[in-house]
Design a protein that fits this description.
- The protein is mainly α and 104 residues long.
- 71% of the residues lie in helices and 0% in strands.
- Helix 2 packs antiparallel against helix 3 and helix 4 runs antiparallel to helix 5.
- The longest helix has 23 residues.
- The termini are far apart.
Length: 104
């Protein structure tokens, strides 16, 4: 079984801002889908490392969301990005991601 250390221990139930709860759902779903596509527990060692790296990164983001350590601007962008992903509007999602690379 693959260890999803930070992702698994980040308490996503503690996110107080109701508007950010869908972000947790969307990112969790994407992580699960991506992990499965990479091979899940049957993944090669390199892919397992990629899955675990993704787990640590998403766990760090969830921790920041839990602690309120995310600026309103970033929160707004996350909500927009996840809304676009949920609507399968990948053109908008990609546009938002490109904007982020220019802003941050």
């Amino acid at each position: 079984m693959i260890s999803y250390e930070v992702y698994q221990i980040s308490d996503t139930l503690v996110v107080f801002a109701a508007e950010l709860r869908p972000v947790i759902g969307t990112l969790t779903r994407l992580f699960d889908e991506t992990s499965k596509a990479l091979g899940g527990s049957q993944a090669t060692q390199a892919k397992k490392r990629e899955i675990e790296d993704n787990s640590r990164k998403i766990g760090a983001l969830f921790s920041k969301l839990n602690s309120g350590d995310i600026s309103p601007n970033v929160s707004s962008k996350l909500i927009q990005l996840c809304s676009a992903i949920d609507a399968s509007d990948f053109a908008t999602a990609m546009h938002l991601q490109v904007d982020w690379t220019l802003i941050f």
